[in-house]
Amino acid sequence: xxxxxxxxxxxxxxxxxxxxxxxxxxxxxxxxxxxxxxxxxxxxxxxxxxxxxxxxxxxxxxxxxxxxxxxxxxxxxxxxxxxxxxxxxxxxxxxxxxxxxxxxxxxxxxxxxxxxxxxxxxxxxxxxxxxxxxxxxxxxxxxxxxxxxxxxxxxxxxxxxxxxxxxxxxxxxxxxxxxxxxxxxxxxxxxxxxxxxxxxxxxxxxxxxxxxxxxxxxxxxxxxx
Amino acid sequence: xxxxxxxxxxxxxxxxxxxxxxxxxxxxxxxxxxxxxxxxxxxxxxxxxxxxxxxxxxxxxxxxxxxxxxxxxxxxxxxxxxxxxxxxxxxxxxxxxxxxxxxxxxxxxxxxxxxxxxxxxxxxxxxxxxxxxxxxxxxxxxxxxxxxxxxxxxxxxxxxxxxxxxxxxxxxxxxxxxxxxxxxxxxxxxxxxxxxxxxxxxxxxxxxxxxxxxxxxxxxxxxxxxxxxxxxxxxxxxxxxxxxxxxxxxxxxxxxxxxxxxxxxxxxxxxxxxxxxxxxxxxxxxxxxxxxxxxxxxxxxxxxx
Amino acid sequence: xxxxxxxxxxxxxxxxxxxxxxxxxxxxxxxxxxxxxxxxxxxxxxxxxxxxxxxxxxxxxxxxxxxxxxxxxxxxxxxxxxxxxxxxxxxxxxxxxxxxxxxxxxxxxxxxxxxxxxxxxxxxxxxxxxxxxxxxxxxxxxxxxxxxxxxxxxxxxxxxxxxxxxxxxxxxxxxxxxxxxxxxxxxxxxxxxxxxxxxxxxxxxxxxxxxxxxxxxxxxxxxxxxxxxxxxxxxxxxxxxxxxx
Lengths: 225, 305, 245
Prior knowledge:
The complex is a heterotrimer of chains A (225), B (305) and C (245). Chain A has 225 residues and is an all-alpha fold. In chain A, 82% of the residues lie in helices and 0% in strands. Chain B is α/β, with parallel strands linked by helices and 305 residues long. Chain B has two domains: 170 residues, D-Maltodextrin-Binding Protein, domain 2 (3-Layer(aba) Sandwich), CATH 3.40.190.10; 97 residues, D-Maltodextrin-Binding Protein, domain 2 (3-Layer(aba) Sandwich), CATH 3.40.190. Chain B contains eleven helices and 14 strands. Chains in contact: A-B, A-C, B-C.
């Protein structure tokens, strides 16, 4: 039961490869979309307009209150119809992949919003005043003064969040989207090699994530010194 | 959330209107309606398959869904292409589970599914079923060494069933009614059920006999397992189509009836139940039951029992 | 699509003849989620503190053991850890123990596995918080304790840990909230907690919208209760003048 049958893994390499592609796609879209959405939400939160602040606050609170598993199931079972209409998707698009991407982008926007908002608040008030004294508009000071500094300060936390996202994409298991983990499990179940396949999956995730967190630490030390 | 919901309801409502429009006499030249019209308009048909229901619908080594039900599906798809006059119709295949198959059909994600879905009265309220394409009995799979031969032997044992299957309802009812003290494990699919059995977590597994034969054929020590017990129910597998979708149902009914009466269905049966099948070249050696013989002689869409 | 709203279904007796209603199933799931969260949090505190002390202990070996634990449990996704605890661990242990584990009542089994998986996963995060909390204390604390004749275990027990815990209380309580959400992953190994019940309800009622709405509201309610509880605890335990939040 423990012997890794390398030949069966080799035979299944196209399945595993397809799974890795899905994992990477979802991760990438979640990061890019999450940072974009998070930036917008963070700007709303510091915008000074009460309704916009409240919207941002409740959005973040709602998405952080619901478990990711539930969110994915919601988007898979219930929302596909809307997604089709909103994005004008051709019916040939794999709806599970789109559901997962949308669910992740919406959720990660909430997380990135918190990170970026903390970064903006962490800057001294003087930055805003100085920008205003230079005659910059609110938008200009955000764009050229505040956000670049906030992003630089928050870079390590954001990169750590990206690693968390990479790990969390494995939860697409619940909507039977064949990512790396799910495909590894289905091969294991089919061939009766679940134990070695699970260990293999764990080892691969461990190698990638610990490598990336090492990289984050390295960059952190370099910018610190 | 409220707005999301109301948009959702709006979309649902319009879909309802579309599907519930009175079905005009669906003769050969009647205008397309329901799902067939949707398929014709989109140029795409989406079918559901199961990832691990040997030998009905499961993955071969290239991760293509294959099996008895998939062969039937392929023939039905050919018929749809012919009817719509679209030989290059795009076919999209989506894996479904017992949990999501009805929702996915209702919300338009899949257009129909022929896999291993039992035609029963409660499902009939949500969806429509085609002619029956397979008949099974729900029985037990166990290791010979356990000495279990029938359901009363399960008292106080761990027993595994597939979540959301009719077997689960039957077994839990039996447990409650007869105070058998069984610990019932609900596994998410057949592969996981069998995993529970083969790793010793469960002493027996209750399921459709044909699927039990499929699971047994997966192992290297198939001879250690037996299919046993009095069938607790006889069930008919049908293809699910959306409620009120008479045109698609008619196409499915006719296709299946023709296969069954012409003897082609028996050939497909022999291919999957009486010959070596992928991916490991195992033979299920599962004889044609009396219910199946009766079905092939007289195709119908009746609920069994 | 033909979706018929039927909220009454929640009050109907379940199809399996077990004398409950579907709403009762949801409430049972809510209780299980709460129990799992609490048990996993306590385990995480225990494991996290133990390894956190190892990491702060003035010994290279101890630090390395602590660091290995953190690396293993932080760099593997939670769902993979659940599967490994459930499917792999009983097979790797000696056959007798593995068989004994597998003979335990299945519902107990998945609950215990879920507590272990969540506890060790969260413990890795708490370990780092404890280590950072101790590292943030002025080094004079340790030196003063030793000057007073405290041995190392005593120093940790009476000087370092109490201060560390008050300092890291806010993140520790946030972990409670995080566990309550992560607990939904337990449904993938068959635990019928809240999200597991949501799926079971879909199976048996074929009314997915009602089930999902009620379960989602239950999660939001649970979240609010935990947040209130966290605020209350932090107000009670906060050291005056030591730190803001």
